[in-house]
């Protein structure tokens, strides 16, 4: 089962509350009662939440539970990871955050956003407030068993970790997104602490962090809503990739039309028999690097296998001279294309493919399990689908046969994906 968002919660009620947030946004959420629970066989699950129930455990046990949760979730390859903490800052927050940061063995960063505005919890100047007052002053009336509560989020973290922190103050959270993103980019501390008084503050902090590659978020109720809202904005800016895998004259004309009537880039794979018989991973990497440069620049791009239809005749003749049976050339072209694009599928907002065999090769390479027919037929026999499972899980796609169609078909497919993707990102 592929998981889009993984959550590690320190208690069951908080786990369920976050699940409710994600479900309200249209994401299917599954809550596991503890770190030893097996994931049941269920339909597609977007959010997998593990309850460690570690808030009141001894520190060593809390660490081990969180480490186990990270390792169990690793196989699901989540795009986002959330550490759910208590809005009153109880529990082993510093130790658990450090454990999650270091459990994968990679150098990770996280952003801590402990505010829960809808519950009256806010964070200002790095201090946790309830109804505008420090939580420490009110804790006796909230939880008489909690003992002394520290108001400063940084000090709470410092009790159980030596990892450096940096405050993202409220006045900066509310500046332009360019300034906010630049601040996050210029901070190399492993832990950022963000002030927030409103859901909009939280969304801006999440968006700036995610835009800088941060995918571990620490917070409480309200964080799920901020993540979903931010992801929709991030996904709406991702470019559309079209693959002209078919070698037909019809597909060639559709590529030329799209190139002449839009601002998209066109990348041609200059293939030869030697490449196809034993793919040169170095040359594939060069094509992939060029393709990624267009994607990183936010440009829609078409990847085609031939510059002009006559090129296929030369390849076919060479293949026959080499003793290739009918169909082998096509299979090799499809596998080559799949090898180029597969690592980049998570970076695009939508995928249009001309050529049914090419589509099969790409999806098979990426480990796709199923396809949800989600929308209308954009052109005849080409309904909008969403991929389920694999490295392109939840990607919006359109496919069409390569041997026929109108000149404008490929461009119409790309335009539709752009509009639909921008307006519906994050929905299932």
Relevant terms:
428 residues, alpha/beta, eight-stranded parallel beta sheet, seven-stranded mixed beta sheet, 16 helices, 41% helix, elongated
What is the topology?
Elements: E1 5-9, H1 12-24, E2 29-32, E3 47-51, H2 59-74, E4 80-84, H3 93-103, E5 110-113, E6 121-124, E7 127-130, E8 133-134, H4 139-142, H5 153-158, E9 165-168, H6 170-173, H7 177-185, E10 191-194, H8 199-211, E11 216-219, H9 223-236, E12 240-244, H10 249-260, E13 265-268, H11 273-277, H12 281-296, E14 301-304, H13 311-321, H14 328-341, E15 350-354, H15 356-366, E16 370-379, E17 382-388, E18 396-400, H16 409-424
Parallel strand pairs: 1-3, 1-4, 2-3, 4-11, 5-10, 5-11, 9-10, 12-14, 12-15, 13-14, 15-18
Antiparallel strand pairs: 6-7, 7-8, 16-17, 17-18
Helix pairs in contact: 1-9, 2-3, 7-8, 8-9, 9-16, 12-14, 14-15
Short recap of the structure:
The chain is an alpha/beta fold and about 425 residues long.
Description:
With about 425 residues, the chain is of the alpha/beta class. It is about 40% helix and about 20% strand. The protein has 16 helices and 18 strands. The strands form 3 sheets. Strands 2-3-1-4-11-5-10-9 form an 8-stranded parallel β-sheet, sandwiched between helices. It has a 7-stranded mixed β-sheet with strand order 13-14-12-15-18-17-16, with helices on both faces. The chain has a 3-stranded antiparallel β-sheet with strand order 6-7-8, with no helix packed on it. Strand 7 and strand 8 form a beta hairpin. Helix 2 packs parallel to helix 3 and helix 7 packs across helix 8. The longest helix has 16 residues. It starts with a strand and ends with a helix.
